[in-house]
Write a structure and sequence with these properties.
The chain is mainly beta. The chain contains 8 helices and 49 strands. The strands form 9 sheets. Strands 8-9-10-11-24-17-16-13-14-34 form a 10-stranded antiparallel β-sheet, covered by helices on one side. Strand 45 and strand 46 form a beta hairpin. Helix 2 runs parallel beside helix 3 and helix 4 packs parallel to helix 5. The protein starts with 16 loop residues before the first strand and ends with a strand. The relative contact order is 0.09.
């Protein structure tokens, strides 16, 4: 599969020119928007000039050469034994710069490859490919260092990276560090931004195999920040970091080729969104405008929860009848609000048991008949009961075990995952092989056996340490992340062909547009560079493209769920199944922002603010533990663990986490306070009218902690 990395410019490209003024002069590639200078003797960008304001972004000012890692057999060749030479020429009607690399080891030909720098329309494309590996030599990767650099004399140099939803790095105040990341559960995309007051460079790649490199260094008493990219060709080892040590290849036939070609891009822009300044928000919109996806409207009005109802060996569990009782209670207290519940542990002996088989229902929860009854009865209360399932893990001890569809590690052994299902060792399924052999039949048989409709949750499809990337080092049927992603898409499409949308676990950019929603976008509080700030970088790109839940480190970070646009539900357990209070306090206000793109971000001390394209506003202050949500019409619907949310004309739901006096502005048109009725919604379905009053334009009434209220205006 071929991937393109594109340098996107702020406006349309008219013409391309490549010029060289002499043997020692650099190449210059330019159009009406940007001028780019590159070395002749090596594939190095010197600088970018944004013509709209003549702002300059530096390239490789350190003169760091590309790093080429070559193996002879299964052993790395020392860099001092490797010689890399480049031959450059103009191609494509003088619109491209082509660098042909020749790598020799002790004068023996080892590897050759091409790097082509092309200006195409609004894009500068750096394409890697045409790899030739001579006898017993293998190319592992090529690093393009310092593609963009800011710092030194620049005004306000900063870096923005996607780690844990986003970090902003103030280059002069940052710690010196080289941070390399691939797509994993903490880095859901590979984009990174480098900018100052005049221009921004957005480095990106569509390859799911490459690595991004962010570096802060000091030279001559000045700080600089750079962005680079590692272009992957083969894997020399595998690191399932959560559970296992690094497993290196000891036989060259296990040096897995992950891609034959790929590209890397740097997008140059100024004030892209015309808000009066260049910032990381401009970078998010450059990336956003190239993503062709929309949030699935099916989830726009539904409260979603994943509930762990049983695990192997647990003494406590939740039967299907008990779940139905809770479904009825929720419906009674919310006027049967739309809800989705994914059951984790419905099969065999509970959560993670039985995989890859799901043909038997957990007997102590009520068996097959109890499950079918629950699904049918829950629909009467506007609740969809669906399954939490797993197409990535398999167990030797369980039915359906097939070693032929298990990944092989770099030493030829069955690839181990974590120890789940009551401590049993799991093994990782090779997704492409599984889809082609038996995975699609598993989808069909599951949907034929169980009356599941509309939606289905696949655990770790996008998730786990590698965030959905899978590797099979088997030399007889090798599959890198790209091929295994194709296998996962086949599974998704099989469900889709039966009218069922797929949701999954951790947020991953390359699954956007293929799944309906993600359970978790991770926003922990790790530190990557000193004096960095948390920013909603990934939410700014994707909130108008998909929906997602969030996972944070602790309660002090929970307000970020409001700021970062969480709309997908959370996980519960036997002891805590999310009810009417969670729905009214959190889910319902957040659903009012469903699918809306973010427009502006600002920070004033500890106070942070996000403005949506439609004018809705979310404000938080994590230290003060305060927040508010204001819709485009100016109505405040949530603040400080209380809510007052419209559900239909002249009907609002209200709740207070701590109880006490609840006070919100009277909705427009509610002119006669005698027509306002406040009802507490009881678990048995009964309604009790309570006293309310209007003071200074606010509707006020006393609430019990966590109790749901319905407020009605009788015309």
């Amino acid at each position: 599969m071929r991937f393109l990395i594109v340098l996107v410019l702020a406006s349309a490209l008219v013409s391309n020119q490549v010029s060289a003024q002499g043997p020692a002069d650099p190449y210059v590639v330019e159009n009406e928007q940007v001028k780019i200078t590159a070395d002749r003797d090596k594939p190095v960008i010197r600088e970018y000039v944004l013509k709209e304001n003549e702002a300059v972004l530096q390239g490789n000012i350190r003169g760091v050469l590309p790093e080429v890692l070559v193996y002879e057999g299964a052993t790395a060749v020392e860099s001092n034994a490797t010689k890399v030479s480049y031959h450059s020429r103009k191609t494509g009607n003088n619109y491209d710069i082509s660098y042909h690399a020749t790598v020799t080891v002790q004068d023996r030909p080892a590897v050759e490859f091409d790097l082509v720098y092309s200006l195409r329309g609004p894009s500068l494309v750096i394409e890697f490919g045409n790899v030739t590996e001579h006898e017993n030599f293998y190319l592992i990767h090529v690093i393009l260092p310092d593609l963009v650099t800011v710092g030194g004399n620049d005004n306000g140099p900063k870096l923005a990276i996607p780690a844990e939803a986003g970090r902003l790095v103030d280059v002069p105040r940052a710690s010196n560090r080289r941070y390399e990341y691939e797509i994993d559960w903490l880095n859901a995309i590979l984009s990174a931004f480098a900018y100052h007051s005049g221009a921004i460079g957005v480095m990106d790649t569509k390859s799911i195999e490459n690595h991004s490199i962010v570096t802060v260094y000091e030279d001559g008493g000045r700080k600089y920040g750079t962005l680079g990219m590692k272009l992957m060709h083969r894997l020399k080892e595998y690191d399932l970091q959560e559970f296992w040590p690094i497993i290196p290849a000891t036989d060259p036939k296990y040096l897995l080729k992950v891609q034959s070609s790929c590209t890397a891009t740097v997008t140059v822009a100024g004030d892209y969104d015309k808000d009066g300044e260049v910032s990381w928000v401009d970078g998010t919109k450059v990336v956003r405008d190239k993503i062709y996806a929309v949030p699935n409207p099916f989830y726009a009005d539904k409260y979603t929860a994943k509930i762990f109802i049983d695990r192997p060996g647990d003494k406590t569990y939740l039967t299907f009848d008990a779940i139905l009782d809770r479904v009825k209670t929720f419906a009674n207290q919310t006027d049967s609000a739309a809800r989705i519940i994914y059951l984790a542990g419905w099969q065999y002996e509970g959560h993670d048991s039985g995989y890859p088989s799901v043909d038997k229902v957990n007997q102590r929860l009520g068996g097959f008949d109890g499950l079918v009854h629950l699904i049918a009865e829950a629909r009467k209360y506007n609740t969809i009961i669906s399954f939490h399932d797993n197409y990535d893990d398999a167990y030797k001890e369980h039915p359906g075990w097939d070693p032929d569809v298990i990944c092989r590690d770099p030493q030829g052994n069955l690839m181990k995952g974590g120890q789940w299902a009551g401590g049993l060792q799991s093994y990782l399924i090779s997704s492409y092989k599984y889809a082609m052999k038996s995975g699609l039949n598993r989808v069909r048989s599951t949907l034929k056996k169980y009356p599941v409709r509309d939606t289905y949750h696949l655990d770790v499809l996008a998730g786990g340490y590698n965030n959905g990337r899978k590797y099979d080092f088997n030399p007889e049927s090798p599959a890198g992340a790209i091929k295994n992603f194709e296998g996962k898409l086949k599974i998704i499409h099989e469900f889709n062909d039966h009218g069922i949308d797929i949701t999954t676990e951790d947020f991953s950019g390359f699954f956007v547009g293929h799944v309906g929603s993600f359970l978790s976008m991770i926003a922990f509080d790790s530190t990557y560079f000193a004096n960095e700030e948390h920013i909603p970088l990934i939410p700014f790109i994707y909130h108008g493209k998909t929906s997602y839940g969030m996972k944070v480190s602790n309660r002090s970070q929970r307000l970020r769920m409001w700021l970062y646009g969480q709309t997908f539900g959370s996980s519960g357990s036997v002891r805590r199944v999310f009810g009417a209070d969670d729905y009214i306090l959190e889910a319902l206000p957040k659903l009012k922002l469903y699918g809306k793109p973010m427009k502006l971000y600002s920070r004033n001390g500890d106070a942070e603010r996000v403005v949506y394209e439609d004018g809705s506003v979310v404000e938080i202050n994590s230290k003060a533990d305060t927040y508010s949500v204001t819709l485009a019409d100016g109505s405040v619907i949530a603040r400080n663990f209380t809510s007052f949310v419209p559900v239909k004309k002249n009907v609002y739901f209200a709740c207070s986490r701590e109880g006490g006096l609840l006070s919100y502005p009277v909705p427009s048109g509610w002119e006669d306070k005698k027509n306002i009725e406040v009802l507490i919604m009881n678990a048995d379905g009964s309604r009790k009218k309570i006293r309310s009053d209007v003071r200074n334009g606010n509707l006020e009434f006393k609430t019990e902690p966590g109790a749901p209220y319905k407020v009605v205006y009788q015309d």
